[in-house]
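Thread: quick sanity check before group meeting

JM: Hey all, I'm pulling together slides for Thursday and realized we never actually wrote out the predicted structure for the chain we discussed last week. Dropping the sequence here so it's in one place. If anyone has concerns about the input, flag it before I start.
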Amino acid sequence: MVLLGCLVGTVAAADDGSFDWSGYFNVDGVDAGPADTDWRLGSFRLRPQYSGDGWTAVAQFDFSRNNPFDAPPGALPGVVYDAFVRRTLGSSTLTVGQTKVPVSMEFSLSGAALDLPVRGLEKGLDLDRAVGVLLSGRKRWRGWGYDVGLFSLAGRSAATRHVSGQAGDAFTLAGRLHYDSGPWHAEASVGHVGEAGGAGSADYTVSDIGLRFEEDAWTLKAEWIDGRNVRGVSGNDDRAWLAHAGYAVSPWLELIVRLQSGRSERAGQTTRLDNHFVGAGFYFYRDSAAQLRLRLGRMSADGDTASYTGLRGFRADTWLAQLQVKYQPK
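JM (edit): ok, ran it. Output follows.
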């Protein structure tokens, strides 16, 4: 954190610097049965940013979290999502601080840009955010790019169960290779977390493949993610996949279908859960900087709904709604 503070000072001292901010506010509605719909604050995030002379300093805060000042092992307090400094190095960038670990195509999307009101089954297996160093390159070598990083504990990930005493003894490694050409994006990533369930436990490994196509009114994508030794227990292996289609009928209405499925192995027993979503996004207002959107749909549940041992998923058919106000200047 001392190093991060010094780097922030470097950015602040840069000539011709500029400050801007973005943010979004979600109100979520969930109805899984005869009871009244449960409306709650989903996210309230602010993201200030200062840039100058090849440096960028970014912070992101979510003020909707319970116990916002409790810090997961190896991470900053829960209210702090991002806190990093980024330096441009030719066609590459070097990031130091707390940022997203580069595993999972869907997780790379901002929470303000999700197609569904909630993240899916794959979210349980990614490595979330961690404090470390990340080197990235974009659209190099005829469209190829990369991310490679060394981080401290992945304490914010649902797939780990670190304890605070591990800080400095266990580390997270992650790498991603991606390709962009016109409307196509493809990527493959891997991650490795030492002693994911506490000192002496097994290492957690995760691998992911994603493919996305976006052109005109269509958004098509698929992703597969596999996690081994979940929470540091040997043989606890989970995987999930998704297939997604979105079609913009007009600038104000998008129809969405997503198929997703998870498989979980615990003590030699395998359980499966399917969560399929059918819904729509309604855009009441949007311009180059602001947006007001309602996402509404039904998530169906099938498979081993009562006994599924995976980390995430809806165990019953559920109606989902999300009203979002977003400000993000270009």
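AS: nice. The mean pLDDT is 93. The chain is about 5% helix and 55% strand.
JM: adding both to the slides.
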